[in-house]
Amino acid sequence: MKRFLLAVLCLVLLAAPVGAMEPGNAMEVRAVVGEDGSCQMTVELTLQLDGKAEQLVLPVGSGARDAAVNGAAMEVRRLDGIYGLILDSSAGLRGAQTFTITYTLHSCILEEEERTLRLPLLPEGLAYPVDRLTFRVTMPGPFSETPGFTSGYYGEDVDNYMTVSVSGPRFPAL
Amino acid sequence: MNTGLRDQDSLILTMKAPDDLFPRRYETGTLAPVARLAALGFGLLAIVYWMLRLRWQPVRAVAQAQAPVGVGPGEVGCRLFARSPDFPLMVVSWAQLGYLTIHVGQDWAVTLHKRMDMGNERSAYERGLFQALFGREQLAEGGGAGFRPW
Question: Complex ipTM, two decimals?
Fold first, then answer.
C-alpha cells in the first residue's frame, strides 16, 4: 500500500509541471500607435510545433517594414497575398518555440468617407491556431471613440469572446 | 480573448480616427515637394507656350505701295515730306471719286462741275477745300489758257 501511494504521489508531482505550462499556442501583442498613424508592433508568439513543417510563415500587416524576429532583421515577403516573415529549417521546427516579432506599420489610417484606424492585431496567414491571445494597444492620446473588432472566423461577433478595458489612453484586453 | 482563434484566422481593430488624436499634417509630408516641383514645371511650360504661341508678336515694318486708309493722293506729300497739299491732285482725286467732273475747253479752259456734296466720309480739311472751291455754286471755272493741272 505504501508503494502504491508513493507511486501515485510521484505521478502527481510529474504531472503538475505539465499542467502549469498550459500547453498551446499563445500570442501577446503590444501595439504603440503614433499620432502620424504609424504603429510599432511587438508580438510575442509561442507555438507548439510538431517538426513536420520546414517552413514557418509569421504574418505581419500589409506595408510592414523594419521587421525583426528575435532581434534579427528579416525581409518582409509577400506569399500568396500574405505579407509575412518566412522562417526555414531543413530539420523541421519542433517543440515549443517562442518568437519575438517586431515591425512597423507605416500608416494604419484609412482615408475613406471618414478616417478610420485599422490595426491588424493578428494578420491573416498564421497556419496555427492561437489558443490564448492578449493584446495591449497604446494610443497617442486620450480618446472617446469605441474600438471595434473583427475576426476572420467570428466576424464582428468576436466582441462576445473577448474582454476589453480602457484605462487612460490605453485599453488592454485580457 | 476568452476563446481561441483558429488557424488562418485574423483579428482586426477598427476605430474612428478623430483629427485631434491623429492630426492630418502627416498627409502633406511626402508628396508636397513633388507637387511643388510639378507645379513649377507646368508653370514654366505655360510660360514657354505663351511666349511661342499666345504672346503678341512684335510689330514689324511692312513695305506697301498704297497710301494709308483715308489719305488722298494730294495729302501724300504732307504725310511723307511735310509739304503743302497738292490741290490740283486733290481735285483730280475728287473727280475720280465722283464728287465732280472736269471739262477742258478748246482753249484749255477748265470747268469743274459739282456732282454731289462732300459729307463727313472725307476729312474736315478736304470738306473745307471743297466748300471753298464751289461755295453754293455747282460750277467752278479754271484759269483758261496755260492752266494745265496734269
Answer: 0.82
